[in-house]
Design goal:
By secondary structure, this protein is an alpha/beta fold. The protein folds into 2 domains: about 5-245, 3-Layer(aba) Sandwich (Aspartate Aminotransferase, domain 2); about 245-379, Aspartate Aminotransferase, domain 1, CATH 3.90.1150. The protein is built from 14 helices and 12 strands. The protein has helices at about 5-10, 50-65, 75-85, 100-110, 125-130, 155-165, 175-180, 215-225, 235-245, 245-265, 285-290, 310-315, 345-350, 365-379; strands at about 70, 90-95, 115-120, 135-145, 170, 190-195, 210, 270-275, 295-300, 320, 330, 355-360. The strands form 2 sheets. A 7-stranded mixed beta sheet has the order 1-7-6-5-4-2-3, sandwiched between helices. Helix 4 (about 100-110) links the parallel strand 2 and strand 3 (about 115-120). The radius of gyration is 21 Å and the shape is globular. It binds pyridoxal-5'-phosphate.
């Protein structure tokens, strides 16, 4: 899909006009105490309605084509609050088999304690989701492109299935960012982000966000008032600053990742490259249909006789890093990091081998990123 990228919303949407001095940027309002308005409309940080929180809410809502949005203190705060807002004891939820390791852990560690049943699909097809739906299912949860294999789920199809069955559909849109994918336009009910990743983009912000129609977002907000997990006003300011260049950054991430993915397929020591922008990706056509760009994340399997750890040590510029989506290129071995909490069997079932590396392609000159990889292969 193509559309005109909304650089203008990134820069201007939601900004607080500085009435006092006419400054060019949003002032930071640090107050935790505001005048009492009425019982419903108290202004307070944990109520998700301080001026700087509202900047993020408006900007993200504009980018996701949403009625409403909320900033959180982490992606996991956004994910857990959203899930618990729509699930209670006796309910069931269907998760896509491949989701962020922390989300997987949340479900496995916590849900049974609260009497919430769950299933993981065995694949990414609509039928895999449909076959897991039970009488007490309330929510379907997907993540696409997925971490770390960049699998693509049919967003429109899953959203339609959820609608037919009267379920709430949720998506973790972190890897795509709203610049590359706007799931609400495809019929999804609730979009979730780890803003620690592309929305922040400079490896210096921990934040999360939720977007959707006002009724659903309000439900998440009321749960959030009980759970806490609101984002501080300082961090909102920093996130606003980051989001001004979101579209610009994502366009460059897309360009660099496409270039690196194509070049990696030509390297003999690489067994397989996972990137939705490659024609060889099994869901390339679907990705083209539901995304505006393919993103900055890719993974690849090293040849069996290369040690993944020593390969990473040979890299000079690309640092090994737990996180992703920064302006700098980083690399990790998912089997030791994001998916270390899964058993070997669970990882194998997902196709995450010990020789899989996930590359977060940054904004350096793309030739420099490639050169660093090539010199490491040569060694
Ligand atoms: C990092 C990440 C999360 C969790 O976000 P935090 O900000 O670390 O809590 C959730 N989903 C995806 C896809 C992520 O990459």
């Amino acid at each position: 899909m193509t559309r005109k990228t909304n650089h203008t919303a990134c820069i201007h949407e939601g900004q607080i006009q500085d009435q006092q001095f006419g400054g060019a940027i949003s002032p930071i309002y640090l107050a935790t105490s505001y005048p009492f308005m009425d019982v419903e409309e108290k202004r307070y940080p944990r109520y998700f309605n301080t001026p700087n929180q509202q900047v993020i809410a408006k900007k993200l809502a504009a980018l996701e084509n949403a009625e409403a949005a909320l900033p959180f203190s982490s992606g996991m705060a956004a994910i857990s609050t959203s899930l618990f807002a729509f699930l209670e004891s006796g309910d069931h939820v269907v998760f896509q088999n491949e989701i962020y390791g922390g989300s997987h852990h949340l479900v496995q560690e916590e849900f049974s304690k609260y009497g919430i049943a769950y299933s993981f699909t065995k694949g990414m097809e609509i039928s895999d989701f449909e076959s897991e739906i039970r009488e007490n299912t309330k929510v379907i949860y997907m993540e696409t492109p997925s971490n770390p294999l960049l699998n693509i789920t049919d967003v429109r199809g899953v959203a339609k299935l959820a609608k037919e069955k009267g379920l709430i559909s949720m998506i973790d849109n972190t890897f795509a960012s709203p610049i590359n994918q706007t799931p609400l336009d495809l019929g999804v009910n609730l979009v979730i982000h780890s803003a620690t990743k592309y929305l922040g983009g400079h490896s210096d912000i921990s934040a999360g966000a939720v977007a959707g129609n006002k009724e659903l977002v309000d439900r998440v907000m009321y749960k959030g008032r009980n759970f806490g997990g609101n984002l501080s006003d300082f961090m909102c300011f920093l996130l606003e600053r980051s989001m001004k260049t979101l579209a610009l950054r994502i366009e460059k991430h897309n360009e660099n990742a496409q270039f690196i993915a194509e070049k990696l397929t030509e390297i003999a020591l690489v067994k397989k490259v996972y990137y939705p922008g490659l024609k060889s990706h099994n869901k390339h056509e679907l990705a083209r249909e539901q995304m505006y760009g393919f993103g900055g994340m890719l993974s690849f399997d090293l040849a069996d006789d290369i040690d993944a750890k020593s390969f990473q040590h040979k890299l000079k510029m690309i640092k090994s890093s737990m996180s992703l989506a920064g302006i700098e290129s980083t690399i990790i071995q998912p089997s030791l990091t994001s998916h270390a909490l899964l058993s070997y069997e669970e990882r194998m079932k997902l196709g995450i081998s010990d020789n899989l590396l996930r590359l977060s392609v940054g904004l350096e000159n793309k030739e420099d990123i490639l050169d660093d990889l090539i010199q490491a292969f040569e060694k």
